[in-house]
Amino acid sequence: MSLKSYSKVLGIVGKPNTGKSTFFSGVTLAPVEIASYPFTTIKPNRGIGYLRTPCVCKGFSVEDNPKNSICLDGIRLVPVELIDCAGLVPGAWKGRGLGNQFLDEIRKADALIHIVDAAGATDSEGKTCKLGSHDPAEDVKFLETEITMWLTQILKRDWPKMARTVEAGAEDLVSLLEARLSGLAIKRVHILGALRKADLNAEKPTIWSDADLISFLDDLRNISKPMLIAANKIDLPTAEENVERLKDLGYTVIPCCAEAELALRRAAEKKLIDYRPGDCNFAITKPEELTETQSKALKAIQERILRGFGSTGVQEAINMAFFKLLSMIVVYPVEDLEHLSDHGGQVLPDAFLVPYGTTARQLAYIIHTELGESFIHATEAHEKKRIGENYVLKDRDVVSMASAKKRG
Length: 408
Fold this sequence. Notes:
Layout: E1 9-13, H1 20-28, E2 46-54, H2 57-60, E3 70-72, E4 75-84, H3 99-106, E5 111-117, H4 136-156, H5 159-167, H6 173-181, H7 188-198, H8 210-224, E6 227-232, H9 239-247, E7 253-255, H10 258-269, E8 273-274, E9 283-284, H11 292-309, H12 314-325, E10 328-334, E11 352-355, H13 360-367, H14 369-373, E12 375-380, E13 385-387, E14 398-403
Parallel strand pairs: 1-4, 1-5, 5-6, 6-7, 10-14
Antiparallel strand pairs: 2-4, 3-4, 8-9, 10-11, 12-13, 12-14
Helix pairs in contact: 1-10, 4-8, 7-8
């Protein structure tokens, strides 16, 4: 088993002209060169973003040598895979616009960041309109409807036969749904959760009405494709007021300015400023190379965005998606516990992103199948204590595995 098998994919979604592509570009602009990504092929609409988390190197007073991630002065940036989904318009589930492309992309996503024009300056089609004239809450509701109706369309044609099969006792409903929806990153646990929430009789699906089926699939959408809202264009008038209204929808809402993040990342790439993704400020390093326009733009970002909101919000959205929506944690496997290194002497070389609830033995399997099979015990470096196979890992644990035989 490899790290790839435990990776999660984040979908960036929204209607046209909300700043979705700007958000995606700002997130995927690499802060520094990294030797290798834990992903084999990245298609044009896919990219690598980074989770930001405090690195354990400071606590151990060591200088690390990251391989699969980046450490910038005690901040570990862990690569994650993102999909920039096609711009969505109402009726996508019927194939309108780029609906088929959007839905093909979203099926691969484990969680979603919905980029919403919080200023209300684009209508439901993504066309420019008078500032504040469009209700961004409507965009959230229509996205929910599109995904739910897409799921309904997938199941509807097979539903009568599935229902009869269940009532004939040939197979249970959960297994049939799991097989039918497996290609949509929908798992058995999601289906069970949706059935509990919908409170429908899984043994008598023939009595479900169309409304029952849609209600169940709406719950399944919410559970299997958890979503947060990036309230973009927060620097524009009317945006802050709309943020409060968006929060009433029950989602995590993060005010953000994707345009500011992209500008800061590009300036940092050119070494004009010192800025790391998610920082609350930046330092100008080469003032003599900045044009007057660039200086004014950076000052405006500093005063209107960073001081007002604490950050551009873009990195916070990525972190929240993985740490809150997907309940992931970061762990550091090492071979040599004394030096916190791998067999080549590299200190804290890898930071693995795994689901909360992962056990020590499961981590061993993630590293290598043979290590999982020959696992004896592990040792956690912070407390220097031996842990068993069922020990549930905590965020930022540093773990060394002991096995019955060495890998060749």
